[in-house]
Amino acid sequence: MNTFGTLFRLTTFGESHGAAIGGVVDGCPAGIELNIDFIQNELDRRRPGQSRLTTARKEGDRVEILSGVMDNITTGQPIGFIVRNENQHSGDYDDLRDVFRPSHADFTYYIKYGIRDHRGGGRSSARETISRVVGGAIAKLCLRQLGIDVKAWTQQVGDIACERDWTRLDLSLTEQNDVRCPDPAVAQQMADLILKVKGEGDTIGGIIAGVITGCPVGLGEPAFGKLHAQLGAAMLSINAVKGFEYGEGFAGVTQRGSQQNDRQTPWPPEELPADNTEEPHAPTSYLPNGKGYRWKSNHSGGIQGGISNGQPIPFRVAFKPVATLLRPQETIDLQGHAVTIHPRGRHDPCVLPRAVPIVEAMAAMVVLDAILINKTTHL
Amino acid sequence: MNTFGTLFRLTTFGESHGAAIGGVVDGCPAGIELNIDFIQNELDRRRPGQSRLTTARKEGDRVEILSGVMDNITTGQPIGFIVRNENQHSGDYDDLRDVFRPSHADFTYYIKYGIRDHRGGGRSSARETISRVVGGAIAKLCLRQLGIDVKAWTQQVGDIACERDWTRLDLSLTEQNDVRCPDPAVAQQMADLILKVKGEGDTIGGIIAGVITGCPVGLGEPAFGKLHAQLGAAMLSINAVKGFEYGEGFAGVTQRGSQQNDRQTPWPPEELPADNTEEPHAPTSYLPNGKGYRWKSNHSGGIQGGISNGQPIPFRVAFKPVATLLRPQETIDLQGHAVTIHPRGRHDPCVLPRAVPIVEAMAAMVVLDAILINKTTHL
Amino acid sequence: MNTFGTLFRLTTFGESHGAAIGGVVDGCPAGIELNIDFIQNELDRRRPGQSRLTTARKEGDRVEILSGVMDNITTGQPIGFIVRNENQHSGDYDDLRDVFRPSHADFTYYIKYGIRDHRGGGRSSARETISRVVGGAIAKLCLRQLGIDVKAWTQQVGDIACERDWTRLDLSLTEQNDVRCPDPAVAQQMADLILKVKGEGDTIGGIIAGVITGCPVGLGEPAFGKLHAQLGAAMLSINAVKGFEYGEGFAGVTQRGSQQNDRQTPWPPEELPADNTEEPHAPTSYLPNGKGYRWKSNHSGGIQGGISNGQPIPFRVAFKPVATLLRPQETIDLQGHAVTIHPRGRHDPCVLPRAVPIVEAMAAMVVLDAILINKTTHL
Amino acid sequence: MNTFGTLFRLTTFGESHGAAIGGVVDGCPAGIELNIDFIQNELDRRRPGQSRLTTARKEGDRVEILSGVMDNITTGQPIGFIVRNENQHSGDYDDLRDVFRPSHADFTYYIKYGIRDHRGGGRSSARETISRVVGGAIAKLCLRQLGIDVKAWTQQVGDIACERDWTRLDLSLTEQNDVRCPDPAVAQQMADLILKVKGEGDTIGGIIAGVITGCPVGLGEPAFGKLHAQLGAAMLSINAVKGFEYGEGFAGVTQRGSQQNDRQTPWPPEELPADNTEEPHAPTSYLPNGKGYRWKSNHSGGIQGGISNGQPIPFRVAFKPVATLLRPQETIDLQGHAVTIHPRGRHDPCVLPRAVPIVEAMAAMVVLDAILINKTTHL
């Protein structure tokens, strides 16, 4: 179950302190220019040690592409890649060999497999997401050619939230601060909170928001393969994620159908619209017969019946606070005795800044996969 | 993409106004007694026309099992089943043949496939979930043998919420009212709201909560197959669902790691516990060596690193208000002209009461699938 | 594992003496006219009781399509179908409830599942192939639109073989005799042999040959999904099949590379060909730049590197003699005691005549699936 | 489609002249000792340059395991591995950049993907099978613990055949000669033929036989997942394979059912057997109730109804002669012009000696996968 996707498939391997993290991208269309600098840049966005807000652990995380390209063009063959692990202080973990760290996967892995790699969490480490970012970067390079864009940002840290939604934000500002929040003032508050929490040896959660733009109508499958179901599964498979919503999400449950229904209107208007309450906010799209229309709202979040309707797809992902604390914690060891652990590893007080590219990567792979599947709807 | 699951697999077919809804359950373990009354009873829980809160459309929805059993015992062979469609007022839909109903799948299906079954939404109709309930009922019969239980209930309708969580509710009361809320007083308020909304020709959303109890440690797979990712995908694939969360979910993002970490403590205690702030709330479990332990909290929601830890798994699912309104709506037709639709079909003002068994069904299939996969962890 | 295919997927269910045989075709392209007469006709070709060479068991085997079509056009939604079982002499099997018939699946099913449907072989009955023929008929309707044709015929029964290969046969004659051999003289010999064997209460095996014509270049995937690997798996999954070969097959192993290499030559010729030993036998094809070429031979069987090269794909499938004899046989019962069985069911002395449409059906589904997958090679 | 298997899954990548060949083994049970020397030894069996019968190309083909083990024990996590390509004479292929070598995948890849790696055949090179041997070696280490063994050998080269079947051969002699034929005298003849063919700049095909012993009853799935269908697909996916048969295979089609039926007899005998014509040849097995039985023959090849019956599983695989000749050949180039190629690469005159471990590897993975799936037959 280390493979993600149906036609565009990412298979991953690797533990925190093994020789390497890596994977195989299978089903990538042929003829795509594989810009290695772009891929490396995406990895750099999730790299530890990139700012004072993240873990001090420094790893170069250089990706090596091993196959599937010829003169930088994809050949349609599987793309193997690895990122060597470096800077491993495995010794830091010696005293964790026999204990279950609270709220980590130590206990569940041990019982499930009868054996676990205690060093840095082994496979349960967030280093596993390196492979996702590589796969997602390749997907993004494909999506670019189709004019599809995936953007994510830190929308909330603890109780500091950026209240404006994506239509009122300049998402090009996201990368301009360490927190990856496109509202500079809110970003500053978030950074202050993270540093405060870090100073207390504690951790904090938050919400990453994202939006997919440029999707054609028709992505996603009716029953179990609804586009948002695939998107949700993708997000929920990221470490520390506890919730996913799209469109109006949980907040929308208090509304009436009459408030939430999205409707189309001919464009240009056929007559003076009787209903002036909602201005069409979307650009003009066209039916197969060439007739124009506009959406008057997007409460549905760009998906109806599980299938993209051509409007932007906004979503939100909840991250719990990191389980690794820089303070003593009581727990039990493998024999069931009470022990107190004194962690010495290097960890993030808040995963959100580094998780932004991971969220984008997962979304990009979902959309590209849906595009490939949708090519088979007709003979 | 009409197949759900990896080893326990449900493949479904059928439209609202076709000849029949049905499916195939493949991978059901051999030797399970297939209690047909139980399966039919589950179907009756989602049946239309069961109360004044649901659509007036009445269908018997009798399931016929076509294969895979011998003297009521599963043989390990695929279980085919059908539910004939009856009481179809296809004529009700004639004037919808050429229009896109707002926030329905009419538009997306039409553009994706170039053809659509306009009668009752075709494949996008909630009648598709009949097959899920049958598959889920079969899964439940398997889970019963393992002492695993899945319970769901209506937790919120519009802004009427049942604030108590499952640990403080008597879930045996869920089926005692039309709303399927185990708090009778809140249920009454919900019912009143639904009837009020119905009277206005409008619809309303809500939240269904669920809890899975009795899971062994070890269900779920580390990377993309995390138990909650599978659970989330399952829920998000149900019509009208806009969000999924488990454990502390979205609300938990404001908390610190020190507040959310779940830890185990030896049981009986080895000494007087220094930390009295949290009483162990869970029953005693045992390590492979026989030593007892208790969990002091369950913020994680029974899953750590994507794998069940033996604690209950609580989750919540957000449903938007139904798109079909009993009032005129403006939209466009297939040619892009403005039209006003006057729906005459029979529809639910609120899907939640009937969606409760669907949520349970999907959860049951996810858990059973995870159990089967987990059997292959060791040789 | 009752699902076949990757994008065009057939899921089947049903036992010999259950209520119905059926299945779901998922991933069928939208917009295909589903000619029900054609599907029924394909079923009639495999129907028991169609001639003196087959079992006397008579079943109408009428297919009912339950979903996925609108005005006879596929909607892109799953196509559910059933064929009711009739004319069941279940009583015929009462004395087989506790015995393992030699070379049947009785023993292996019993040990694997701990329970088996002894009536007519249950799921191991060749009635399971009804669903394959329906799925294959739908695939054929799709392939027709692309000019792709799949034809099979009885090439050998016992030691009576039709020595001519497909290039020297008039395949339109296949359906003109009960054996389904396009050489009328050989067909007569085969029929005589089958009747002789039948008279002895015995059974006989044979070989079905097939050829796929009209494939574009590019079907099949390089590594594990080679077109002939998929074709072989499809054929080997049919009851009683013991071998598969394509191109020169087993006989070709004695040849040299210099004898078997297939090469292309410009067409029209650029100069007088130096090598006159082999005349180009194939029609002219064209490279992307419009330049013509011809193949000088087809030893490869239309597939190179696992991918179709545009030439016809000939293959052969070996069927063992049916295990059910109309004579007493010694065996053991479920308790391990020696018993003698006296079969009374109605069975085919030779499966080949009725297996011809099954072979075609499986090949058609493989090719259509490969076509859909190949649509995703480029963005 | 570069993933093989359902639960024990091998995903591979790599081209002949890329940076590395590699793969990911997912679903390997936890707790298996991963003997790296054994894995390397399997690779050495397929390594080029190992004898005068194979290509002169020398590559160390050292495998590096990157993940999934802790102290040499599998952890249940995916096992990533790579084998660096060395000794690449890519220059050898410069003049092949623009031509389609006869009977290679050059043409089909070029048309399918619009781009191809012309160096050494790229992905279509037999170097791809390195990953299969690694995956197979890991599967073998698992099977060993269950007493299951997979053995293959060169049974025929050109028209030199080893007529004795496995029951009359000492398979421990297979590795004692370069050809990998357990009959030393025949091996000598085969070697002579291969050298003769090599001297002529030509190539030759042959047949590899194999046998799987020690399988429990119950492996394989009834319909499409029949054990021999999976085995056949596995073999047919190996480069140059043109046919697969098991049990009596193609030769058996001339026989009667009364000759081929395999039956069980109580053991020890309950009375003097009336039928003395066939001595039980198999060891005593036992029913669930403890009663002994023996098989009187094994025409079925150890599989009935697609499911293993506990008897050995013999099979045969046909390999065509290698397409690369050491003599000039006429063909066309990418523009469709006639050209003559003068190959200079280093190639095998006969693939069979080096293909023996590949056949074993594929069989081992199929059997292990079937074992894991079979663990889920019961709850």
Explain what this protein looks like in three dimensions.
4 copies of one chain form a homotetramer. In chain A, α1 packs across α3 (129-145), α1 (36-46) packs across α7 and α3 (129-145) crosses α7. The first copy, chain A, has a 5-stranded antiparallel beta sheet with strand order 1-2-3-7-4, with helices on one face. Chain A has a 5-stranded antiparallel beta sheet with strand order 9-8-10-17-11. The model of chain A has no long low-confidence stretch (mean pLDDT 93). The first copy, chain A, is built from 7 helices and 19 strands. In chain A, a hairpin with a 5-residue loop joins β18 and β19. Chain A has one domain (3-262, 297-374): Chorismate synthase AroC (Chorismate synthase, AroC fold). By secondary structure, chain A is an alpha+beta fold. Chains in contact: A-B, A-C, A-D, B-C, B-D, C-D. The interface between A and B is large, with 117 and 116 residues.
List keywords for this structure.
homotetramer; 379 residues; alpha+beta; Chorismate synthase, AroC fold; 5-stranded antiparallel sheet; 19 strands; globular
Number of domains of chain A: 1
What order do the SSEs of chain A take from the amino end to the carboxyl end, as H and E?
A: EEEHEEEEHHEEHEHEHEEEEEEEEH
Distance between the termini of chain A: 31 Å
Find the CATH topology of chain A: Chorismate synthase, AroC fold
